[in-house]
Amino acid sequence: MIRASGAIAIALLLLVSFALYNGVYRVKAQTRELKDLDGAITKEAEAIRVLKAEWSFLNQPERLQDLARRHLTLGPTGARQIVVLANLPERGSAGAAPASDTVAGEIEAGQLPFRAVPDDLKPARHKVFP
Amino acid sequence: MARTRARLTYAIATFGVVFAILFVRLVEVTTLHDGVAPRSARVDNDASYFRADIVDRKGEILATDLQGASLYADARVIWDPAETARDLKAVVPALDVVSLTKKLASRQAFVWIKRNLSPGQQDSVRQLGLPGLYFKHEPRRVYPNGRTASHALGYVDVDNHGLAGVERGVEDLILERRNKGGLVELSLDLRVQHALEDELSGAVASFRARAAAGVVLDVNNGEILALSSLPDFDPNEPSLAARDALFNRVTLGVYEMGSTFKVFTTAMALDTSKITLTSQFDARNPITSGQFTISDFHPENRLLSVPEIFMFSSNIGAAKMALEIGTPTQRAYFGRLGLLAPLTTEIKESGTPILPKRWGELETMTLSYGHGIAVTPLHVAAANAAIANGGKYIKPTLLKRDPKAVVPYSRVVSEATSAHMRDLLRMVVTQGTGGKADVAGYPVGGKTGTAEKVSGQAYAQKRLLTSFVAVFPAKNPLYLVLIVLDEPQPSAATQGFATAGWTAAPTAGKVIARIAPMLNVPVAPIEPSKGAPTTMASYEELH
Questions:
Q1: In CATH, what class is B193-518?
Q2: Where are chain B's structural domains?
Q3: Would you call A34 and B522 a contact, using CB atoms and an 8 Å cutoff?
């Protein structure tokens, strides 16, 4: 009886020590992996920050304005390019409302050039990029 | 005997239970660890970012922290201090060989050599392969937009402490939000800010002005959309900036603003009901008080009504209105308009108004047209916003407001007075001195101000400070633009004039033409003849 319980106790002891040992090693390995992953996350986060900063650096309004002036035929939006519904003439009253009151009317009457680019915003050189 | 047995059984059972608990806990702790480790690993990660990012109202990054390498040395390991110093000088030109040699010979375990090296420099130092040199990675503040909004943002020192602007003013908030990827959202709009800066620097160039200042304000909630002071600086390199460039002319500089103060004088006159729009004042003769003479820039030499005084910017008329209101009332209104105390915003660099030492009848008269009192441009912008927005004074802020939040305000003038003032401001643009500020589609209301700068004891006639305060759309203002130019010079293009109507007013008009479409301001019908919109009360109607 004592012998049997002793043997069981020793077997249990061995089993538990093995399990504990194994467990500790697995935990250590996982801790290392976690640390590596955390390091990698930090690095990636830093890289994202750098890229975000670079993105806003490249999107400086001053730089975009300069690029737009050089390469585009677009100018700033003016009030004449914006028409709200309330300002449109009523249907059938086209004759009564001054046609040139709207952009469409002005274009029709030849008062508004199709591509209105203010003189100071004319591109310095025309260059078409492929 | 039986009792001993029972006691033993109890003792064994108790110990058994305790050991069982210990065993279970042991297995649990060693194998099934409960998430303590990852948390401690994250803390280091967060601590390396010292300040939260600053973004504009649309989320564009205005300031961020990036990792920078700083070079230090363990002087005990350095072989040859002189040679090391020479080699480092070749890579980092900013170093001084003599003082560096001394530092490296000090035998101390830690000496800074250079903070925040560029990646290229860091690489070159590594290539030198010298012993005893080490890098420490530190957060470095980066402003990707360079000079844009530099005076609003401010700058930081080498240890990442805020020294000016928002960086200093809301440092607590910036430090509090640095973890968990927190942001500090400003009320600034980068696009509006750029438009303002672009037009201001254009004005400085074409009028050869010494300096300029500008503000764009949301009149209904006090948000500052743009704030610019020229000359400006690059917050990435504040040490390279001249002292003058670091000076914030919008919040710290105090100036005698001249006729823009007539807005306040007229508003208080109408608000007290002592004076109505039809009241007339004799502007035929200059007012003389002791050695002092008050005269008009464009003398009309006749009886002037209140709208005429305002439109033609008559000093004599304004002085007479102020006299009728009286000194105590003037003082009370100035106080309500916030003109008597420093205006504290998120920018701590705020100028204290310079008030007359003696505030008697003469001072009441000169103050009515903005002489004898010096305030910051932001004071004028906030007070004008109050006059135009229905009479509610709202403290300007650089932090984005929650659109649903109730904005605290204090009442300055009545709704009716404010409505009259909006009409008067519009008339200055349609018929008075501010004509060059008008923008097709966006009716502008505004007031010019041309002040002679004090030099020594007297006013210098050639050195002007011109300003234009504009609100748009005039009938129901959404935004305010204030432009201040320091010593603009007349040119052929301005027909020899350097007054506000020729310098500050057109600049304000250009700014409005650019920012109004961006801000989705409703467009008013445009007359084919490019004339003034018909929505305004005409001059005759007011009589």
A1: alpha beta
A2: 193-518
A3: no
